[in-house]
């Protein structure tokens, strides 16, 4: 049915423009560098899923779902003897990807795309195979992933991107349902009108509180809520269920209007960003991959400390000689990671804290999964350094989101300082080869080499895969716990 705008000869609004593009664009329309990068991003997402599948909080969530619902049709990564419903599998597999602060994020509109998109797609594939005996080839899977990579950030930019974090919203959980719905809709080859329904159903489920970062385990699961919401929206729309129309630009109770309330920005939201330069400017190019196992806003802190360690190895070899540590941060990073971390702390809070990650880098020379084992979280040497650390919102650093300065003062009065515009993971960003190295490094010892090599080969040659369900099946057998 034609919309009122179309009947009157008016230009469709941003929601319909997005839906029309999602329906019609093909893999051939995607630049080669974006297609290739997407494969490496998928590989990184699966690495994070392997690392996270048997962490304590993931196992706790999985146990709850296994006890709560009957055996289903969809694979839970790392649990070969268990299957659950598609919606629950999307949530649990997303929780694995997001479970250890190792996954991707978008530079301008922060969300962890892989944790939202890949689990939702695999759940949809499982659902299709049972109900329709339909195989999903690699080209369809790849273009569906890219559909989500392009949609989530655009919706986020409509809400001023990273400003959502400053306001206390978990931005990825707010932007994420749209990404999931777009990807699954593309996979199911829904027409634009049904994609609009899917997005409308997904958006009314959006939300996520950033207070989850202060030690709760639910922070690991909030992107999973987004994965599940988008999947549900697309499956309902496939069967003709009607969603909110023009959901992004609707002024009364619309997605942007409501989440934009109280933003303090003028205008409070930017609907034009949702459909801006579709097929011309590729948001996929702004997705970055983490090097450290901590919240993205702490990475420049860690890199500043590492730079000081490289410059002054002898002076910083004696941690007792440190009198104070000052961490100067821009607004978003300060509100997200500059909080006063308290002892004892759970792994979630530690990974979100700039002070904690700076101390860990000073002590261990790295910030990786092993630094957040239970027996590592309460070390006196780390907490002594945290006690000497203060975080500040430094106005002189300007508005560049990632710029940070670390100043270490020694007992003898020596002052050591390093300022970086951005961490390595942001600028220049990890290369495809470095993502491949990260994949191999993270999965070493957690999965048998033969299975790891099969997953790697299949992902990097995804366009030639006849049935992507085989990749999902390779993720089913157990993985080891990296912090056991």
Automatic annotation (TrEMBL):
Domain named MmgE/PrpD N-terminal: residues: 16-261
Pfam families in UniProt: MmgE_PrpD_C, MmgE_PrpD_N
Alphabetized GO MF terms: lyase activity
Segments forming domain MmgE/PrpD C-terminal: 292-461
Gene3D superfamilies: 2-methylcitrate dehydratase PrpD
InterPro entries for this protein: MmgE/PrpD_sf, MmgE/PrpD_sf_1, MmgE_PrpD, MmgE_PrpD_C, MmgE_PrpD_N
Similarity-based family: Belongs to the PrpD family.
Protein name, UniProt field: Cis-aconitate decarboxylase
Organism listed in the record: Talaromyces atroroseus
């Amino acid at each position: 049915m034609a919309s009122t705008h179309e009947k009157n000869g008016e230009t469709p609004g941003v929601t319909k423009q997005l839906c029309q593009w999602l329906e019609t664009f093909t893999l051939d329309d995607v630049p080669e560098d974006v297609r290739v990068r997407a494969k490496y991003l998928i590989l990184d997402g699966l690495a994070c899923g392997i690392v996270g599948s048997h962490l304590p909080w993931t196992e706790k969530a999985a146990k709850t779902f296994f006890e709560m619902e009957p055996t289903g049709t969809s694979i839970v990564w790392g649990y070969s003897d268990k299957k659950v419903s598609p919606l629950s599998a999307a949530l649990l597999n997303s929780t694995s990807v997001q479970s250890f602060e190792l996954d991707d994020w978008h530079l301008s509109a922060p969300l962890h795309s892989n944790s939202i998109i890949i689990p939702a797609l695999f759940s949809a594939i499982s659902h299709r195979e049972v109900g329709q005996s339909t195989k999903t080839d690699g080209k369809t899977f790849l273009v569906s992933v890219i559909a989500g990579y392009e949609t989530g950030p655009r919706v986020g930019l409509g809400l001023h991107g990273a400003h959502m974090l400053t306001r206390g919203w978990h931005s990825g959980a707010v932007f994420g349902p749209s990404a999931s719905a777009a990807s699954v809709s593309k996979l199911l080859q829904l027409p634009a009108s049904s994609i609009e329904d899917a997005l409308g159903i997904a958006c009314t489920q959006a939300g996520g509180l950033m207070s989850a970062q202060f030690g709760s385990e639910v922070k690991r699961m909030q992107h999973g809520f987004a994965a599940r919401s988008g999947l549900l929206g697309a499956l309902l729309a496939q069967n003709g269920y009607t969603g909110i129309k023009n959901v992004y630009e609707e002024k009364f109770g619309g997605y942007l209007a409501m989440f934009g309330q109280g933003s303090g920005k003028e205008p409070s939201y930017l609907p034009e960003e949702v459909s801006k330069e579709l097929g011309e400017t590729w948001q996929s190019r702004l997705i970055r991959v983490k090097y450290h196992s901590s919240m993205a806003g702490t990475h420049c802190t860690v890199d500043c400390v590492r730079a000081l360690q490289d410059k002054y190895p002898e002076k910083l070899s004696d941690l007792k000689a440190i009198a104070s540590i000052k961490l100067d941060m821009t607004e978003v990073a300060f509100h997200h990671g500059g909080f006063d971390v308290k002892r004892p702390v759970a792994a979630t809070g530690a990974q979100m804290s700039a002070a904690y990650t700076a101390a860990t880098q000073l002590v261990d020379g790295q910030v990786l999964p092993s630094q957040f084992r239970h027996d590592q979280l309460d070390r006196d040497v780390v907490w002594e350094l945290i006690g000497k650390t203060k975080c500040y919102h430094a106005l002189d650093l300007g508005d560049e989101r990632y710029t940070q300065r670390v100043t270490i003062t020694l007992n003898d009065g020596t002052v050591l300082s390093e300022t970086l515009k951005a961490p390595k993971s942001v600028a220049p960003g990890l290369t495809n080869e470095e993502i491949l190295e990260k994949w191999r490094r993270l999965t070493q010892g957690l999965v048998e080499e033969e299975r790891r090599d099969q997953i790697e080969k299949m992902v990097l040659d995804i366009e030639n895969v006849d049935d992507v369900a085989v990749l999902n099946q390779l993720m089913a057998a157990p993985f080891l716990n990296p912090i056991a």
